[in-house]
Amino acid sequence: SSTGITITEQPVSVSVPVGYTVTLRCRAEGHTALRYQWFCQHQSVCRLIPGATEPDLLITAQQTQLYTCRINDRNRTAVFSDWVKVEVHQYVARGLPPQLWQGEPVIVLNPTEQRLEVGKPLQLQCAAMGVPAPSYQWYRNGNLLENQKKKKLWISHATVSDSGTYLCCASNSLGEHWTSAVDVHLGEQGWPAEGGDAPAERSQLCHSLFLVATGKIALLVGNNRYQHHPNLMAPVTDVFELSRLLEQLGFQVVSLLD
To answer: Domain named Caspase family p20: which ranges (predicted)?
Structure first.
């Protein structure tokens, strides 16, 4: 490098539950001794992190922030690492003992079914946790959508050919996880016709009534530690995804493990 400092390991973005402890790593080589200093940025305010002068930065995740590391040598030359994002999910902390999660993708938000008119914008959303942060790929009717590689799928003017079944794959170096599949229905302006789509209206009404019912409590228990079996990972993610679903249906959820 022309500066005499070469970054040999860039930090990587992560997506974690609130309260999770994660380490950002940066490594560099230079002609003289190097000094490290980490900075964080939240809502466009960038500040130096006092005492963060090691190549590794240990963070207990509280809110979504960006981080970068500055590396100096004795000649007052400085380079900055890539900016990385520590994305923090506030609503998924309980039910996930951090010591059991290895960082493989866990879906924390599934897309929902859409009914819309032709020409209107189509937006589907999903989210996953992961260390490193997962990358996303959307599919329609099993076909990969070349330009839809973000948590949010966005089509500004939907056409009839955008109808179909959508799902998203979140993947990182430790594995992949798929969202649930959802249907997107497109129709002409003013649809459904007079009288309405009775079955759909009925299911919508049932769903609304279901949400109105109060005092619904769900107790979820994920058993992980078995005496004669290695620790399982699935119960953690299952409790996780079930609690999200049940909360969407208006349940108060109590999640326990072991």
So the answer is: 214-258
Rounded to whole angstroms, the Cα distance separating 116 from 159 reads 10
Task: Express each pLDDT in 199-228 by its tens digit.
Answer: 554 454 444 444 444 466 777 676 655 666
Dihedral over alpha carbons 171, 39, 20, 152 (to 10 degrees): -40
Picking from 9, 184, 222, the residue whose alpha carbon sits closest to that of residue 106 is: 222
- Give residue 100's pLDDT: 75
**What does the longest C-alpha to C-alpha distance in the chain come to?**
78
Pick the CATH number of 106-187 from 2.60.40.10, 2.60.40.760, 3.55.10.10, 3.40.50.720: 2.60.40.10
Q: Which residue, among 116, 113, 112, has the nearest Cα to 192 in the 3D structure?
A: 116
pTM: 0.68
- What average pLDDT does the segment 82-101 reach? 76
CATH code of domain 6-89 = 2.60.40.10
The domain spans of the chain are: 6-89, 106-187, 216-257
The candidate with the shortest Cα–Cα distance to 185, out of 137, 240, 255, 114, is 114
pLDDT in tens, 3-48: 689 999 999 999 999 889 999 999 999 999 999 999 999 888 999 9
Asked whether the CA dihedral 174, 90, 224, 241 is positive or negative, the reply is negative
Handedness of CA 96, 99, 102, 103 (dihedral sign): positive
One fold for both 6-89 and 106-187?
yes
* Residue 42, amino acid: H
